[in-house]
Amino acid sequence: MDSNKDEAERCMEYAEKYLSEKKFDEAEKFLKKAQKLYPTKRVEDLLTRVSILSKQSSQKPESEPEVRKRQNVTKEGTQTQANSDFTKDQIEHVKRIKKCKDYYEILGVSKEATDGDIKKAYKKLALQLHPDKNKAPGAAEAFKAIGNAVAVLTDVEKRKQYDLYGSDEDRMQSSHSHQTHYNYSRGFETDITAEELFNMFFRDVFPQQEFYMRRSGGRWTRQSDSQNQHSHSQQPHGYTTFLQMLPVLLLIVLTMMSSFFISDPIYSLHSSPKYTVPRTTQNLKVSYYVKENFHSEYQGSLRRLEISVEEDYLSQLRQTCFREKNYRESMVWKARNFGDNDLYQRARNMEMPSCKRLQEMQA
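RESULT FIELD:
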């Protein structure tokens, strides 16, 4: 099975190479081979994408009279194609979209749906309603409708406004009661077309020559790679690089300066290779440690230093005592809940040395 997977990966590499060269027949051949060797969702999506692109490249532009004829037949609902360009399921998908009353219903998600749920639903519907795959009457309008829905519901501000007030089409519907259904395909909500939005969502399946950026306000704008490279080439690279490196340089300088200005503490409550000389405070008899050069380095008040040592020691004792009490109480609570008398007695008799030492010093 692993050998089949490796062979399928090689077929995918060849297919992607041919896709970038727009050789769709060769790409489809290698994708079908990969699907037989090791079927995956990625191969299936890429096969669908190749089929759509292959049809787009071979499709001839229609004349204006033919376009008008198709539109008229679609609006009247009397198109009965003898060559069966579409299936019953495809018509049902289009009819369902036309009957929907809001964007959530169009995508088939709840109002609590996350961005991931919305995008997943859009991808599924886009493959079913793309005009190059679905030739049913009204498929183009339904395709634009799902594009409108995902454009609004994946933008935080637009979704908030939509949940509060609905879309412009909703408000228009409420003021024109004679309308029979909502037209969610009108007034596309982005700066790009429904086809470009489709390409943006499937860019992981097929690499695009153009990419899309989201501006302030949540609207999608298109920018080609050549434009992006040109805009970057106009910037002064040396100055930009310096600005990017400036925070790192400042951090290095501050780190070096801290080593000069931050000195070690005068004492430590625990013995270490640096603090080796033991001492004891006069009042509470607290043990602490200093460096060997303590007498020559420290010029302050010894009484004030010992007060700091005792306060530090008492603070640590209080913290340790607090943890000991919490642990004992949790053990008592557990023993009561489980009815364990032995555990209860052990918890009640548990020693708390830090609390005991704290009481002795406070006394």
